[in-house]
Specification:
single chain; alpha+beta; 2 helices; 10 strands; 17% helix; elongated
């Protein structure tokens, strides 16, 4: 009988963690790495970047809002007639368990009239609106005009 108990204990030690892992919560939908490159010219828009990490189900990012700018739009850089241009986009698909990067030269948000106080504080709260009803708020770090790596090339088409 002691051998049976040892085998049973070994089986429990091996299988229970696997069963518990299968019951774990699925990965959540979240946004991180948010930052804004402030335009050196207050009459031109600033650009925002971030990464959306998909959860267990596919969703669409339908918009981004903030009360620290006059207007926010999602845009995408595309090649048209041999040159790069930007166009507004209404939504972005985020497949389950994947990530979508909004990065320089690709998808990004444009922010007109960013509040100078928010720039001075070094962060802008962004609210991300998803098709499943989720609203995720993330503070975007402000990269001020003239900071290393800052260019206005992202906005040359506007």
């Amino acid at each position: 009988m002691p051998v049976f108990r040892k085998m049973l204990a070994l089986i429990v030690l091996v299988l229970v963690p696997q069963f518990l892992a299968a019951c774990a919560d699925p990965p959540p939908l979240f946004v991180d790495q948010a930052w804004i490159r402030v335009s050196p010219n207050k009459d031109t828009p600033s650009a925002g970047y971030f990464v959306v990490h998909g959860g267990e189900a596919a969703v669409e990012l339908r918009g981004v809002m903030t009360d620290r700018a006059l207007r926010v739009e999602m845009h995408e850089s595309v090649e048209k007639d041999g040159k790069m241009t930007m166009q507004p986009i209404d939504s972005v698909a985020v497949a389950a368990n994947t990530q979508v990067a909004f990065a320089p030269g690709g998808k990004h948000i444009m922010l007109w009239g960013v509040n100078p106080e928010a720039i001075a504080q070094g962060k802008v709260p962004l609210t991300f609106l998803f098709s499943n009803g989720d609203r995720i708020i993330v503070d975007a770090v402000v990269q001020k005009a003239g900071a290393a790596g800052s260019t206005s090339a992202e906005h040359s088409g506007h």
